[in-house]
Sequence to fold (420 residues):
Amino acid sequence: MKPRRRLQRRLLTAFAVLTLGVAGLFAFYAIVFVYMVEDRFFVTQLEDEAAHLVRAQAASGHWPAPRGAHLALHTDSAAFPADLREPFTAEPWRREFPGRDGRHYHLLQLTGADGRPAWLVAEVGDRLVVRPMRQRIFALLAWSGAIVLALALLLGVWIARRTSRPLAELADVVAALQPGELPDRLPAARGDDEIGTLTRGLEALIGRVRTFVAREQEFTRDASHELRTPLAVIRSAGERLAAEARLDDAQRRHLDHIRLSAAQLEQTVTTLLALAREQPLEAAGPTRLLPLIERVIVEQAPLIGERPIEVDLHVPSTATASHPPAVLQIVLSNLIGNAFAHTEHGRVRIDVADGSLRIANRGHAIDDALRAALHVPFTRREGSAGFGLGLAIVQRLCDRHAIGLTIVHDADGTEARVAL
Fold:
């Protein structure tokens, strides 16, 4: 599956967010600036007029009329216009108030020579510059922001593609890699940047993987030859011995056991080598359980030895499993063998219930920390005579063939359930 280009989207998103943030901040400061300039103009005008009025009052003893038609002087706040008097009474510290019907007021408190206060009021509704063109300012800022955003996205697309193209090419090549077709070199950036470093690291790793795969292939080829040859000799010798007429019944039973074990070992070797090569095993089909389980019990019976252990087998003769017989042979041999080996006394019960084959035994208690790692190779409980590989092989086979395997441990013992 082709990888998604999430890196490009993230770069574009980052450009878009940054652009919107900068444009919004610029628009905010632009609006604040124009309002502050306008307010400062009116405040400066009031201050100049207030200085003139204070000088005239000090010289004549009374307040003169303001020089501007939009200016008014009030010695009592009760004389304010109604749309100014009410908000001023509620917030007397403010110096700017919006009025009704488009009016807008700026006021400045004065102190005459006699110490009595007065208020210079400027009604600047018809002199406002920003408010009448506020919609145009907002529209201009919006269009400017949209244009800047579009340019930023175009730049972002160019930078994102230029930056992520080598990484995307590398991701496509890596996604298409197959264990048997590993390239010597990767067609990606060869510079000293992070992508070049990553490419060289992947090439070194591919070289190690290629060496490992070649070594494993040589091992499985040699193991296939070296293991099958003595097994073929054993099988041939067993067939020649079976043709002898001088064997008594006990000898013939031992010989049959050797021949059966050799055939099963040959099948097990074939299965494990196919699993190591990742080759498909034999097709699954209905496999009768009872004969297979009986054969496994006979094979694993020597693990019981002289211990007082009973095998309670309750598997219907019609019970079948839709798994390859060779796979079931290995899985059941390990599970039943573990049940025999780890039971000191009592009963090993093998039955079918709820669509699963159950193998239950009473054995040694297993620590909680060890239970979760029993499927890891070379993990075994203290005192175990095995190498800790049986359950690891079983787990790999079950994972490969989608066989549901559940192992439950409690104070009474262990129960393994194999889905049929």
